[in-house]
Amino acid sequence: MRRIAAVAIVLGSLACATTPARVNYDLDPNYDFAGLQSWDWMKEPGQAGVAGGPSPLVVQRVRAAVERELAAKGYRRVEDGAPDFRVAVHGGTDQKLDVRTTYDYYGYRWRVPVERTDVRQYTEGTLIVDVVDGERNELVWRGTGVAEVRADSPEKITEQVDAVVSEILKNFPSPVG
Fold it and tell me: Alpha-carbon distance 30 to 45, whole Å?
């Protein structure tokens, strides 16, 4: 029985490994995105000493992915001066349970139903990318991605972060001009 449960959990893990992030975005419909050309990071309050805070390594990966995606869209980063918009990233993880019940039928004439319930615990991560107007300091665009966190290796973490950030920022308008 334990062997069957272990195989079911492994098969469930493999089936979910290719599940893409669920991505949503929202924006201020009255905001003119056409004039945006430059950006910088929001000044964030220090989080030193915060227990359970985000891993600094994951934060570095997310920031690098955001910088690459915005550069690929044609935005330039302005560290000194007044950028057209500022970007902030937020995120967190949550433990989830995936419970699935299936029914198999055995027998030729009598079709006896056999119920099987598989339970899998996994970590779900949420990443939020906020875009704030540089002058008014108001939120004008927010993208959110939710996906299962697969922490198999640093390379896999980077690959997943890059994919989620790319999918989120796919919906952010490119600069005009």
Answer: 29
Could you tell me the pTM of the whole model?
Answer: 0.76
Residues 135 and 174 sit within 8 Å (Cβ to Cβ):
no
Q: Which amino acid is at 145?
A: G
Domains for the chain: give ranges and CATH numbers.
21-96+122-169 (3.30.160.670)
The C-alpha atoms of residue 90 and residue 132 are separated, in whole angstroms, by 13
For the stretch 42-51, contacts whose Cβ atoms lie closer than 8 Å and that sit 24 or more positions apart, written own/partner, are 42/86, 42/87, 42/88, 42/130, 42/132, 44/88
- Given pLDDT bands bounded at 50, 70 and 90, which one contains residue 177? low
Q: How far apart, in whole angstroms, are the C-alpha atoms of residue 144 and residue 124? A: 13
Per-residue pLDDT tens for 101-135?
A: 888 776 666 667 788 888 988 888 899 999 999 99
